[in-house]
Amino acid sequence: MRWAMAFIALLLGLGALGWFAGAALAPGGSSAAPMAASTLSCSVEPADPGCDTGAGEVEVFRMSSLANAHAGTPGGSTYGYKVCCGGVTGLGTSCSGTYDTVLTLPAADNAHVASDASYPTGEPVCLSVPAGGTVACMYSPDCTDACLATMSGTTNTNAHVADCDGTGDYATKVCCEASALDCSSGVDTDTDGFNNNVECYLPTDPGDNCPDVLYTDDAWPLDINMDTYVTVAGDVAAYTGRLGSTGGPPPSGNWRLRLDLNMDNFLTVAGDVAKFTGRLGSHCI
User: Fold this and answer.
1) Per-residue pLDDT tens for 89-121?
2) CB 110 within 8 A of CB 145
3) Where are the domains of the chain?
4) Which residues lie below 8 Å from residue 190, measured CB to CB, with a gap of 6+?
5) pTM summary value
6) Helix (H) or strand (E) holding 46
């Protein structure tokens, strides 16, 4: 009961502060340009030792040989060559979030490839980056970015693959580019009042200060319900029943990382809820 009363009092206090301070300045409407965190690089390596995971490389797909090859997924094939990519902070192979499809395969092993969705029930292989970054793959005779492989066709469903070393290559190159945002402390790329390291932790989009799609695009740390407004009912009330919970051992059932705005592993009034002071009623565009 004391917690509840203190929480209600705090909400009223925050509301008053927001009222007397006037409408807080809303973040600007345009997204700041992402800052590249190094450059994507890819190579085909023998399965043993394979990709240098310690240096942040990820395995994108596998090849049966260096030329005229079939392909397979990392988890579904034991082929002897791995396509490894790295050089970008937070690089992954998820086919969700911020990603692009590198190739589509009809099966996880012993597969031909296509560059489009010609195998809609097959196995896509993807490259992904954290929210706020960019990733794009294309198919061209020339690569200005990282070359992952070459293929014997572009959108057909019966293509073979080869590496990019200039010997036994196919005419079409599979080229990808990717960048991530600098998650270091002290940098606020989207100028929404929260440094990139906080947004990478939550995670919200450090490259955008306002949801582009209502209720699904988590961009502004104070806009917890993603409706472009900061309100008591929509955002601050998310802390009700959670104050004092922790993500540390033993974990609390009420813990929610998204609410830990000061990254201290605790949900508190002073550390988290107080960040709404003077911002209630703010609106991003």
Assistant:
1) 889 999 998 899 999 999 999 999 998 777 888
2) no
3) 1-34+185-285, 41-179
4) 27, 31, 32, 132, 199, 205, 206, 207, 208, 209, 219
5) 0.63
6) strand 41-46
